[in-house]
């Protein structure tokens, strides 16, 4: 090396594997046997991806840069005889993808040092590689839980005349694995022909796609296991295991030029029947306990269940809230337990129950509807239970029970009663607010509709004589 006896790059603690977002530090050691003039001493740290169309070629057809940082550790001057040490430190971006080396491309990270010498003198450079690992947590992959299954039906011809059918179904016990775990493969083969099939096989496959102008695909068989044959008109269930060897992870997050996929291929040698089961290879294995805890966790916004009493009270309250403009003058009532229904008076001629919310009709239905007049100081106010509580959005002075039922003749309402002894809810409260006990209401006779008396009453003398 002439004047230069030693030129080395050493990373702190001899560390070679780093994580995104971590800092990388070390020293550059230069030892010269005589004075060496230089323009500058620089240290560079960079990461990039390069892909090509030729196997193991480094003349990249496409490149992708992730970061490129340079620091000057010595300015223009002369390195004296002896050993010199220059420290450096860089920060790795959090978005940098995991290192990868394939047949048609690589993701490379390295630290390089340069000694720029004056004109016509020899320049010196040195580099060392390090590896970046961005762990893939399988628990964070969407739709990762459960098994992976598939099925295929294949028709084929043998002996030039006969036609047969093979039904192949297969599944894996999980959708994600880490190196060292075992893939449980279960296959069902139904041979519906008169000819025995070839051997069964299950393979762990890797497919790497290099996104050049015309994408390049690199297929590799990582591991393969083989089974027996299925005889004519027989159905066989085949179970096998595949151990996952050390492999690059499925996702190279942050890289747009290289895509890695894994799948299990289940096939028959003869006839040509094949299906694939996509899987993920990661660094953090699936935690089934975490999955069960997520499924068992109740919703955070779940409201406590209301008791029947509170639900009934809230329903009555919501049904009896009048408009804000009349809330100051509308009397309120207190729900009480319904007393035993009393006998109803004889039915009267039916009149129309359609009315305006602000002017209840003077005539009303009772009997089948259960309506009862109230002698409580509110003249000409009646209620018909045929009117739904939701019929009007604003009805001053009217209170409807949310639980009232519209029954036929002889059916007693089951909703809460406010006053009276007929079992029908009263829409109006007494003048003094609330009563301590239900008071039976007397229905006044309606002389206009009565058929009695049919003749004049006897005179005083006739009464005395009888």
From TrEMBL:
Residue ranges, compositional bias (Low complexity): 296-337, 411-426
Protein's GO biological process: nervous system development; protein transport
GO CC entries: cytoplasm
Name the record gives this protein: Arrestin domain containing 1a
Family: Belongs to the arrestin family.
Taxonomy of the source species: Eukaryota, Metazoa, Chordata, Craniata, Vertebrata
Residue ranges, compositional bias (Pro residues): 338-348
Domain Arrestin C-terminal-like: 162-286
Comp. bias regions, Polar residues: 381-391
InterPro entries for this protein: Arrestin-like_C, Arrestin-like_N, Arrestin_C-like, Arrestin_domain-protein, Ig_E-set
GO molecular function: ubiquitin protein ligase binding; ubiquitin-like ligase-substrate adaptor activity
Classification via Pfam families: Arrestin_C, Arrestin_N
Region of interest called Disordered, as start-end residue ranges on this chain: 288-466
């Amino acid at each position: 090396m002439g004047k230069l006896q030693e030129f080395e790059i050493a990373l702190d603690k001899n560390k070679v594997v780093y994580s995104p977002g971590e800092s990388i530090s070390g020293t550059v050691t230069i030892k010269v046997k005589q004075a060496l003039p230089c323009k500058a001493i620089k240290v560079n740290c960079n990461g990039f991806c390069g892909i090509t169309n030729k196997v193991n070629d480094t003349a990249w057809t496409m490149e992708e840069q992730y970061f490129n940082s340079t620091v000057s550790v010595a300015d223009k001057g002369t390195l004296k005889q002896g050993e010199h040490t220059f420290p450096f430190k860089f920060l790795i971006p959090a978005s940098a993808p995991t290192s990868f080396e394939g047949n048609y491309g690589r993701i490379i990270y390295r630290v390089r040092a340069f000694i720029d010498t004056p004109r016509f003198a020899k320049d010196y450079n040195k580099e060392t590689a390090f590896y970046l690992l961005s762990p893939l947590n399988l628990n964070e992959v969407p739709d990762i839980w459960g098994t992976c299954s598939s099925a295929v039906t294949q028709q084929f011809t043998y002996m030039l005349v006969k036609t047969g059918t093979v039904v192949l179904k297969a599944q894996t016990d999980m959708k994600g694995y880490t190196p060292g775990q075992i893939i449980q493969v279960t296959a069902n083969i139904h041979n519906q022909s008169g000819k025995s099939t070839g051997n069964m096989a299950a393979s762990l496959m890797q497919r790497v796609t290099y996104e050049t102008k015309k994408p390049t695909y690199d297929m590799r068989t990582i591991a393969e296991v083989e089974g027996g044959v299925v005889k004519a008109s027989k159905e066989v269930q085949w179970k096998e295991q595949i151990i996952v060897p050390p492999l690059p992870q499925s996702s190279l997050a942050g890289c747009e030029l290289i895509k890695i996929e894994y799948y299990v291929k289940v096939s028959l040698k003869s006839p040509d029947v094949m299906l694939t089961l996509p899987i993920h290879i990661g660094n953090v294995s699936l935690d089934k306990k975490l999955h069960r805890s997520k499924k068992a966790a109740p919703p955070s916004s779940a409201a406590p269940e209301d008791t029947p009493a509170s639900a009934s009270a809230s329903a009555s309250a919501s049904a009896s809230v009048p408009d804000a403009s009349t809330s100051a003058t509308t009397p309120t009532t207190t729900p009480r337990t319904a007393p035993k229904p009393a006998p109803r008076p004889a039915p009267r001629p039916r009149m129309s129950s359609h009315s305006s919310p602000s002017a209840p009709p003077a005539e009303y239905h009772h009997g089948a509807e259960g309506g009862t007049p109230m002698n409580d100081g509110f003249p000409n106010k009646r209620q018909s239970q045929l009117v739904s509580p939701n019929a009007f959005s604003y009805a001053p002075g009217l209170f409807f029970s949310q639980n009232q039922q519209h029954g036929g003749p002889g059916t007693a309402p089951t909703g809460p009663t406010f006053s009276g002894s007929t079992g029908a809810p009263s829409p109006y409260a007494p003048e003094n607010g609330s009563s301590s006990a239900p008071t039976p209401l007397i229905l006044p006779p309606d002389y206009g509709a009565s058929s009695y008396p049919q003749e004049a009453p006897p005179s005083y003398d006739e009464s005395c004589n009888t």
